[in-house]
Design goal:
- The two termini are 27 Å apart.
- The chain has a five-stranded parallel β-sheet with strand order 7-6-5-8-9.
- The protein folds into two domains: 174 residues, Aspartate/ornithine carbamoyltransferase (Rossmann fold), CATH 3.40.50; 151 residues, Rossmann fold (3-Layer(aba) Sandwich), CATH 3.40.50.
- The protein is α/β, with parallel strands linked by helices and 330 residues long.
- It has 13 helices and nine strands.
- Bound molecules: N-carbamoyl-L-aspartate.
- N-carbamoyl-L-aspartate binds next to α3 and α7.
Length: 330
């Protein structure tokens, strides 16, 4: 079954979230609108709503994570779900249990949702194909393929500052080749109407073949940043690199690091974003990481609202509010 038909049911309702590729503009916008309606919950004094009361969510992480795992956990707790975190390094998968056996074992404990991060591209789709009806799979990053909730929180963050997507020029800078975030961001930006997307970095990390995504491939930072509204930076993902793709030392920072000087090529009010973890002095100058143009911490907190929205839309007992806003937009 194709990814698009797996993640959305016949009524157009979100069943799993595996990728931003193939998510329609109305559905993507509905997720962002619902996330926006959860922001007051995440920022208020009482941070709980009962939408997922009685539901069980399992966070199954086969790769390290700080932001994503914590914000998925917080999102589930703020929706009143019971949450179990499984660090796969300490689970039976290290004793040779297959992914499928892990899924079936946990499913027999009446779990309603799995949030899965795995090093292999396609792992979340595999889970979704095997999951029992009514069990939702949320992809928290699979190999270099997709990281849809990161892209959605990036879109929410951009929308709150620059809602005119069709006017935006966006540069995604760094290790695009190994980045699931870049791929998911490109699909989401295009669905929301962004026409000018530049992928910027050295030839080894931004091969010309990426222009098949209908973006511009640029190997010069200044040219790539010229007049952009948004700069999205990425970490060098050494764990996914085979062989020597980069000269050592500070060579990457000298050519592609964002500094006050190189940021000057972008629009004067350009937004600076990064999914984290940040490597200061590698992809970004230390003083810019949390500088006045940086939205890095806002991205993290928007991650909670976006994950709440996706959880509520897949397994939530649709609240009157969610249902009403859905009908109003129909
Ligand atoms: C990203 C990831 O895991 O793909 N991080 C994240 O989820 N915040 C990017 C990265 O690891 O560099």
């Amino acid at each position: 079954m194709s990814l698009a038909t797996l993640q959305v049911d016949e009524q157009g309702k979100l069943r799993h979230l595996l990728s931003t590729e193939g998510l329609s503009e109305p559905l993507l916008t509905e997720i962002l609108d619902n996330a926006e309606s959860f922001l007051p919950v995440t920022e208020g004094a009482v941070k709980k709503v009962p939408l997922l009361r009685g539901k069980t969510v399992v966070n199954l992480f086969f790769e390290p994570s700080t932001r994503t795992r914590t914000t998925f956990e917080l999102a589930a707790k703020r929706l009143s779900a019971d949450v179990i975190n499984i660090d796969a390094a300490s689970s039976s998968t290290t004793k040779g249990e297959s992914l499928l056996d892990t899924l079936k074992t946990l499913e027999s404990m009446q779990v309603n949702m799995f949030v899965i991060r795995h090093g292999v591209s396609g792992a979340a789709q595999f889970f979704a194909e095997q999951a029992a009806p009514g069990v939702a799979i949320l992809n928290a990053g699979d190999g270099r393929h997709a990281h849809p909730t990161q892209a959605l929180l990036d879109m929410l963050t951009i929308r709150r500052h620059r809602p005119d997507f069709d006017q935006l020029k966006v540069a995604i800078v760094g290790d695009i080749l190994h980045s699931r975030v870049a791929r998911s961001d490109v699909h989401a930006l295009q669905t929301l109407g962004v026409k000018d997307i530049r992928l910027v970095g050295p030839r080894t990390l931004v091969p010309q073949s990426l222009s098949s995504l209908d973006v511009e491939v640029v190997h010069d930072l200044r040219a790539g940043l010229r007049d952009v509204d948004v700069v999205m930076l990425l970490r060098l993902q050494h764990e996914r690199m085979d062989g020597q793709l980069l000269p050592g030392g500070s060579a990457f920072f000298n050519s592609f690091g964002l500094t006050a000087r190189t940021l000057d090529y972008a629009k004067p009010d350009a937004l600076v974003m990064h999914p984290g973890p940040i490597n200061r002095g590698v992809e970004i100058a230390p003083d810019l990481a949390y500088g006045e143009r940086s939205l890095v911490l806002e991205q993290v907190s928007h991650g909670i609202a976006v994950r709440m929205a996706v959880m509520a839309m897949t397994i939530g007992t649709q609240s009157a509010a969610l249902q009403a806003s859905r009908e109003a937009r129909a």
